[in-house]
Design a protein that fits this description.
Layout lengths: L1 H37 L3 H17 L5 H24 L3 H17 L3 H28 L3 H14 L4 H13 L3 H14 L4 H24 L3 H14 L3 H13 L3 H14 L6 H14 L3 H10 L7 H10 L4
Length: about 325
């Protein structure tokens, strides 16, 4: 009986010694991982912390402190390594590691890191989609590019770049109303960004100009005037002013026509249709009773081969000196 009791005491002491020895080894593994991390060897440190965690868990209660320390470090380390891959533009690998970070963080009850990782995954996926959409746009695959940008704006309604380029793609594919809708959203998002706002307004001007041209071709003077004016409001151009002047003349809105024709000539002083425009301008001015100005313009083209005769007739009718 004494021998059995002595044997049990020896066994218990031996087990205690082995347990202490195991804890020391686990602690040593943890410290080695910390050194690697301090030296900037993140991947090696991560592998070592994971080994230390596994060994600490195997010790049960005695390894709880080391295990908890590992759990506090491992998710952040996954995030840090993933950010490195993202900075190197290795997006697939970065997403893989952010997913692992989120998975591990959730398992360890670290909701803050899990949310950070998931947010970064969304950002990187948007980056991937944006790169793909940009390639489609550069390759002039406008309909496909518009669809790709829409996928981004559906996912992130605050992505001003995607709305701008979606509008550009839609405009180039002939979907002007949808283009204007996307560009208007970009305009709202860029409200405080003067440089980008200027770009958006030029694109809006272009979309409205294309709608105005379409209306002009079908002699829809009302729409041509409206869209021409909206084009000029966003970014003034000779083309917009010419459409405004032409449409307003047809609608007998001669004051608007005269102002537009004058603006057209100022923006495009060497226009191929300069003489014709001067004649139209003189006619519009005469119609609103600004005879002196009209006379000046008709005199300017009185000797033109094509419009001279008509101009001289107007000079006679207006009794110009």
């Amino acid at each position: 009986m004494k021998k059995l009791l002595l044997s049990l005491i020896v066994t218990a002491c031996t087990m205690g010694f082995v347990s202490a020895q195991d804890l020391a080894q686990v602690t040593e593994m943890y410290n080695a991982a910390a050194v690697l991390l301090n030296d900037g060897n993140k991947a090696e440190a991560l592998a070592q912390f994971e080994k230390a965690l596994e060994a600490a868990n195997a010790l049960g209660e005695e390894g709880v402190e080391v295990a908890n320390n590992c759990k506090g470090i491992i998710p952040d380390l996954y995030v840090s390594i993933a950010k490195g891959f993202a900075n190197d533009n290795d997006i697939p690998k970065a997403i893989e590691l952010f997913n692992k970070a989120a998975e591990v963080a959730k398992a360890f009850g670290n909701t803050e890191v899990a949310e950070e990782a998931e947010g970064l995954i969304s950002t990187l996926k948007a980056t991937q989609l944006l790169a793909n959409a940009n390639t489609l746009l550069n390759n002039k695959q406008f309909a496909e590019a518009a669809a790709a940008y829409k996928e981004i704006t559906d996912m992130d309604p605050t992505n001003a770049v995607a709305f701008l380029r979606q509008g550009m793609a839609l405009s180039n594919s002939g979907s002007y109303d949808e283009a204007i809708e996307a560009l208007t959203k970009a305009q709202e998002l860029y409200a405080e960004d003067e440089a980008n706002l200027k770009t958006v307004k030029r694109q809006l001007s272009n979309a409205f100009l294309r709608k105005a041209n379409g209306a002009l071709k079908t002699k829809n003077w009302k729409d041509a005037l409206e869209f021409g004016q909206k084009s000029a409001e966003n970014f003034d151009s000779a083309n917009a002013q010419k459409i405004i002047g032409t449409a307003a003349s047809q609608l007998k809105q001669n004051k608007i026509a005269a102002e537009a024709f004058e603006a057209y000539l100022a923006l495009n002083p060497n226009a191929k249709d300069k003489v014709q425009t001067i004649y139209q301008l003189g006619t519009a001015l005469a119609a609103i009773g600004e005879n002196a100005k009209a006379c000046g313009y008709f005199k300017e083209i009185a000797q033109d081969e094509k419009f001279g005769e008509a101009a001289r007739y107007q000079l006679t009718q207006l009794k110009c000196n």
